Amino acid sequence: MLDDTQDTGARTNTTHHAGAGAYPSGIQGDGVHDNTHPPYPRDGALGTTTRDAGARTSGADADVRAAGGLDPAGAIVAQANEAPTAERPVEGVVQVLSPRQVPLGGLRALEVRRTLPHRDRSFVGAWCFVDHYGPERGVGMDVPPHPHTGLQTVSWLFEGAIEHHDSGGAHAVVRPGEVNLMTSGHGIVHSEVSTPGTETLHGVQLWVALPDVTRDGDRAFEHHAPECVPLPSGQGSALVFIGELRGVAGSPIVTHTPLLGAELRLDAGARVTLDVDEGFEHGILVDTGTVTLDGARLERGDLGCVDEGRATLTLDVGDEPARVILLGGTPFEEEIVMWWNFIGRSHDEIVALREQWETHSERFGEVVGYEGKTVGDLVAHLLDQDVRVLVDVRLTPLSRKPGLSKTKLAAALRAAGIEY
To answer: CA 239 to CA 224: how far, in whole Å?
Structure first.
């Protein structure tokens, strides 16, 4: 689920690999990691079920449902019949998304907390997938070669190390405080395995949707070790791994839409005001401690989101130090179809991608150097567990504006005296 970062020594070094294939790793999915095999889209049938009128996944019933699971290659995807993730209403302009727990892998699965995609929000900028996991002791990661299209994966660790191989020839190890970004372009395959010396895994796995104009471009792989710099207030520090945090630092990592990604380490009791780009949407993901974002309390694992138009964000830290991930970007206005490890623009495109992967198309290339579970072993396990599900529904695009979710619709109807 994580990209591996190369060990270049100095934390300011940047490694870029582009060519026949390199790309981001990460937990795979439409919106959830689970242990089921993803429904297979066919002509005229199936895929992700829509979560509701405001969901960011799609489907037949108005409930929160997403297609997906653990694919034969060990990648993670959205699960059918997924339980809704809670959204806590708050005063003002902060949307608080609470995570849902999703197991990544087999019987001793790594539990991840997923906040995007969410039935009430699909994106923060072009960030379309947010998984937060650990600290987990004694639970390793072994994700065999699996494909991606139409996205960038961003891997960021707090603890542990993960080895990455991809079909573009990149071989690296992701380490704490260093970012690996993989661009799938037209298609890529990669694997992720925790290193033998890793006793604890703790980090985030993120996806970025590529815009239509570049989503069929070249594969690429980049590594960057940002410097930890003090915040202007003197009440914490930042590692900016994507984009630029005004007045703090910037990153040389290449993105295809304007983005921001940073780890903030905040002192206990601090009040920190950040200068941010008014044209960006922003999200604050809490890793440790508790934080109040412009009056909205965020617990561990929560993602607090604000729309564009804000020049500052104010964070009030609780009695213990806090660590958060700050995400941002210009609103992503395109609709996408997300299924398993693929991001496309239509149901038919996803069907074609799935068929190309299963017929070993040259589109994705091959990974050299992976040592771990075999795809065959995983397929046999999945079949034994009878988890290959088929969902008779067409995939529906996810868009920036979620519309009226089932939860909000039910509340509105009850308020009007109408049973729902």
So the answer is: 11
**411 dihedral zone (left: phi>0; alpha: psi -120 to 50; beta):** alpha
What's the DSSP call for residue 165?
A: E
Q: How many CB atoms lie within 10 A of CB 1?
A: 29
pLDDT digits (tens, 9 = 90+) for 194-205: 999 999 999 999
CA distances from 327 to 125, 164, 216, 243 (A): 8, 24, 25, 10
The two structure tokens encoding residue 219: 């594969």
Residue with tokens 């072009």: 126
Separation between Cα atoms, residue 168 and residue 309, nearest integer Å: 39
In a 13 Å sphere around the CA of 139, the CA atoms on its Cβ side amount to: 18
| 3 state DSSP class of 61 | coil
Distances (CA, A) of 181 to 41, 134, 224, 250, 360: 28, 20, 9, 15, 25
- Separation between Cα atoms, residue 300 and residue 315, nearest integer Å: 14
For the entire predicted model, the pTM comes to 0.76
* DSSP character string of 332-363: --S-BEEETTEEESSHHHHHHHHHHHHTT-TT
CA distance 207 to 198: 24
**Residue 306 bridge partners (DSSP):** 282
Judge contact between 147 and 364, C-beta under 8 A.
yes
Residue 4: DSSP 8-state = P
Q: Specify whether the CB–CB gap between 261 and 206 falls below 8 A.
A: yes
| pLDDT tens column, 225-273 | 999 999 999 999 999 999 999 999 999 999 999 999 999 999 999 999 9
Task: Say which residue the tokens 């590594």 belong to.
Answer: 223
| Residue 81, pLDDT score | 27
The torsion region of residue 233 among left (phi > 0), alpha (psi -120 to 50) and beta comes to: alpha
* CA-based nearest residue to 105, from 145, 150, 143, 67: 143
Cβ neighbours of residue 173 under 8 Å, at least 6 residues apart? 4, 5, 6, 7, 161, 162, 163, 164, 195
Token pair 């905040």: residue: 266
Residue 179 confidence (pLDDT) above 70 = yes
- Looking at residue 285, its amino acid is L
Q: Are residues 349 and 156 in contact, defined by beta-carbon separation less than 8 angstroms?
A: no
